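Hi C.,

You asked whether I'd gotten around to modeling the 757-residue construct. I have! Everything is below, sequence then structure, no commentary in between.
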Amino acid sequence: MNRWGDGAFDAYLPAETVLQQVETAVIATDRASNLLYANAHAAKLFGFPEDFYHLIGHSILRLGFEKADLVKAAGLAKQVLRGLVWEGTFISVRQDGSRVFVRAQAAPLRHPSGAIDGIVIFAREAMRRGTEREFDRIGLLERIGERLAGSLELDRTLRHVAEALVPQFADHCFIDLRHSDKLVRRVAMHAKGWQPGPGTWAAVGEPIRYPPGHFCAQAMARLDTVVVEDFDNQRFPAPSAASAAACAGVAVSSVIAAPLLARGELLGVLSLALSGLTHRDGIRYDSFDREFVGAVAGRVAIAIDNAMLFEEERRTALAFQTSLLPQQIPKLDGLEIACRYVPAKPLETRGQGIQTQVGGDWYDVIPLSAGRVAIVIGDVEGRGARAAAIMGQLRAALRAFAQDEKPPAEMLRKLDEWCRTLGHIETDAHGVPTPVTPMVSCTYLVYDAWTRKLAFANAGHDAPLLIVDGEVGQLEIEHKGVLLGVRSQGVSGVPPFREEQRELPPGATLLLYTDGLTDRRTRADGSGHYTEDEAAEMLRQSVKAVAHKDVEALAKAAEDAVPGDIDDDMAIVVVRSAAAKLPSEERVYPAEPIMVSEARRMAADTFTRWGLDPGQSELACLLVSEVVTNVVLHATLSPSPRRELVFDSASVGGAPALGGPPAVAGLDDGWGLSTFDDAPISTGLEFTVRLRRGEAAVWVEVFDSDLRLPRIRNAGENDEGGRGLYLVDQLSSRWGSRPTKEGKAVWFEVPVRRPIR
């Protein structure tokens, strides 16, 4: 008799012949997990192509492991290469997209010398019929539990359930959940991508009503699992004749329905069916399967209940978050604006407790005087309710500060001071109370669409992208600045915030974003994270591809530029300057009384040329006269029987303000009428009248060298003056004043009743 190892026996039964016939998948790899060998059953089980030999030398980590199992596969390799045996269940994703639960055992592949050269894996499909069913059931329940624990999002949880059961355990999987007094189908999955005809089985999102006596109705009524072993020999009422016909058409042979119960409440029903879609060892469910599906349904119900509770918490948190962000972007002349806020993936089970998606990323668009606009984007360090609350306070404070029309650097200084007031005390691990100040990155920009001037200051935020003529670069920022709140951390030598200015070319686009867009994105293959440089390059390429499209397309491209889940929320603001020049008129006059009528005449001619409604034009000219008259009177050294604009003095101890006229007896502390005996004389000073036309309003600005800002006074019944500013306040839609480098500007806005033709 020939023995194993004899030449004649080896010739008759070579190892390759045996391995190709065995009904177990056999795979061998080297130490780096690169494929060395796979038998025919391995190709069938894992769905390798017929010519799978070209896969030799490639890592098995990329040959069918589901993304969630890549970490487990890496752990398998490490364990086996240490000389240990690994056994467990994992999911294989075949080339056709179907999933199969695989029970595998891995052992070291040893050289005759005893050294470990690689890994040998023996695998088979789990839950096959036979003596190992009980063992496989435990493994499958374990894997289903792992998948259910992998997410707190309801839709993902339901999808995981269906993917775990089809086609491994069923050809059809349905999950129907109660919504108010209705039952709504939330999941419908079928083997091999098969889909029922329209109007047959209820589709996802549609309500479904099971008639009394239906196996799903029985399961919900009894609160127990119902098994229909032989569907052909047992009759159940169908929801419709078309539904019954679909069952017959696909040859449904056996079904199971299990109620979904959590905390004593019926959430819905899970139903599974076998049909002619697949060929399997058994085509009937039995009592063993009843117990198994009941156990699965119990786990599924708890996961669904947790997911629904989390969804409610998330909706509340997101409603809180979005209420702190701009609800509507105002329509602005000379600008197209698109904004996005994308919440982060929930932290779920990362050892930090369940956290919702709220964070501290924020943006705002604030209309300023004379059509100018402030654009701000920022990011509060950290996430959660505290970061969102700090963000809301900062945004509210910045909106209030913006009304003072301070330069961008001054705005950041004020915001930095505000951050210090938001600090709180935390106790460290040793019980020592420690002051904690929020750290915030921020960019504050002011854009004038008529002059195309962009003024900005930065506080440690990433530079925005600048898109000009289809080319994507970065806005040049010389002074990046430091985070708001750093000064409160005892950091010495902190540089001040500095203002910079640029001019935006016609049609240029700025794309501002927070670091959630480029940081900590998981790679598509699950192997770590993209670097910041890789993510930034993806963003540039994605934006460049749609550079000539509208701002909404740019915002969408930026949002989708870097694949994968984000670990931080992100904000995106896209701003594009108008290609056409906006209408404006500006003229400089000497500060002499005769120039009041000249300024009014220029305004009237300009308003007529712009097609302003005659009534609105007359109103605007009246207000021009009010403002210009008072500017002229304050520029003269001698008083005049004219209406007069009076300002708050910026002087100390009664001394005149720098650049302003000397104190004159009889001046009001508001806008009104004062009478003087002498005629005005020329001072050599000048004022500027600037008119701007927008789509919905015209703006008038009057500039002079006086530093004092006007204020409204409450004139008494017998006062001669003090009503001029009140008149401007009542007749204009908005008015204000702001300091300039040379003095001040007083402005007002009058709406346009007739649209531009």
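If it helps when you're writing up: The first helix runs from residue 7 to 12.

Thanks,
B.
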